[in-house]
Write a structure and sequence with these properties.
The protein has 8 helices and 10 strands. With 234 residues, it is of the alpha+beta class. The protein has one domain: NADH Oxidase, CATH 3.40.109. It has a 5-stranded antiparallel sheet, covered by helices on one side. Helix 1 packs across helix 5, helix 2 crosses helix 5 and helix 4 runs antiparallel to helix 5. The chain is globular.
């Protein structure tokens, strides 16, 4: 009923993004706002600058889940497309009947400004601009997530958390399969040979959809990865 052959583009504006100062502190390793006033001032400056440069794009496509093997962590979509999402993610999708594959990006202008700040001898602002871009990209992903939820809620369904290649031991190379669903003319994101996204400040992933789903906390206690944006957000 929800399988869509077309990629759905979402209208997103820079002003829609919730770029949280406290989230950037967490990425820096602070448990709360830094005491150093110049750090707070520089973060606010980066957020203001980034909003002039961000060009957000987001969208998704929904496919029926043909099979899900909880032991192997293999999820099968139509046309025998297998995603090797591994067991941690598979367990979170066990009640899902459909899968939303999504993509979001803020473009490459924030990334380029970060690089130029480093080259000009301002590593602090360059680094904080880079973190601001990461937070902005996550905000795009959050907006796409909520738009998908609002769409399926009308049919009495709910959604899981979102999961991206590279997390929970899901091989990042799986993005090559996912990008078959993302037309460049609508998402403007490509993959390098090593499966990294270009622009870098982009997020791709999957979201389960079903009737009996409850969105739970991320199962971070089962994951060994330390440098994870989801684990750091808990």
């Amino acid at each position: 009923m929800f399988e869509q052959e077309l990629f759905i583009s979402l209208p997103i504006k820079s002003a829609d993004l919730d770029i949280k100062e406290e989230s950037i502190y967490k990425l820096l390793g602070y448990s709360q706002k830094a005491e150093e006033e110049f750090i707070s001032d520089t973060i606010q400056k980066c957020i203001q600058k980034s909003r002039q440069l961000i060009m957000p794009i987001g969208g998704y496509i929904i496919k029926k889940i043909e099979a899900l093997d909880l032991k192997t962590g293999i999820l099968t979509l139509p046309d025998n497309i297998d995603l090797h999402i591994n067991r941690i993610i598979a367990a979170q999708l066990k009640e899902a009947a459909w899968l939303a594959l999504f993509i979001g990006t803020i473009g490459n202008k924030v990334e380029k400004l970060s690089e130029s700040l480093f080259q000009e001898g301002d590593p602090l602002e360059g680094y904080l601009m880079n973190l601001t871009g990461s937070e902005a990209a996550e905000s795009v992903a959050h907006i796409v997530h909520e738009k998908i939820y609002e769409s399926v809620l009308q049919h009495g369904l709910s959604v899981t958390n979102r999961f991206s290649p590279g997390y929970c031991d899901w091989n990042v190379a799986e993005q090559f399969k996912m990008f078959n669903f993302f037309p460049y003319e609508k998402c403007e994101v490509t993959l390098t040979e090593s499966a990294l996204m270009n622009p870098v400040k982009s997020v791709s992933g999957i979201i389960g959809i079903g009737e009996h789903i409850t969105r739970k906390a991320y199962p971070c206690n089962k994951c060994s990865k330390e440098n994870c944006i989801y684990k750091n957000s808990q």
